[in-house]
Amino acid sequence: MEELIETIVKALVDHPEEVRIEEVKTDHAITYQLSVHSEDMGKVIGKQGRIAKAIRTVINAAGTNESKKINLEIV
């Protein structure tokens, strides 16, 4: 799943070398914490959060076989 997120985000940003993804697992959920260069934050979030929502939709679709909820936080 991290590779999927990384592939999507690196295509969007100007500083792909600064894309970092950290996985945090709990009993009921898996949270991926995404950090990017400060100049790229707007590109990852998009207007009114549309790009971030689309990334989350793709991640949820790809993780349907997991029995846990999958979250994406942009920090």
UniProtKB/TrEMBL annotation:
Highest taxon in the source lineage: Bacteria
Alphabetical UniProt keywords: Cell shape, Cell wall biogenesis/degradation, Chaperone, Cytoplasm, RNA-binding
Main localization, broad class: cytoplasm
Subcellular location: Cytoplasm
InterPro entries in UniProt: KH_dom-like_a/b, KH_sf_prok-type, KhpA
Family, similarity comment: Belongs to the KhpA RNA-binding protein family.
Subunit structure and binding partners: Forms a complex with KhpB.
Purpose of the protein: A probable RNA chaperone. Forms a complex with KhpB which binds to cellular RNA and controls its expression. Plays a role in peptidoglycan (PG) homeostasis and cell length regulation.
Name this polypeptide is given: RNA-binding protein KhpA
Protein species of origin: Pseudalkalibacillus berkeleyi
Taxon lineage: Bacteria, Bacillati, Bacillota, Bacilli, Bacillales
Gene this chain is encoded by: khpA
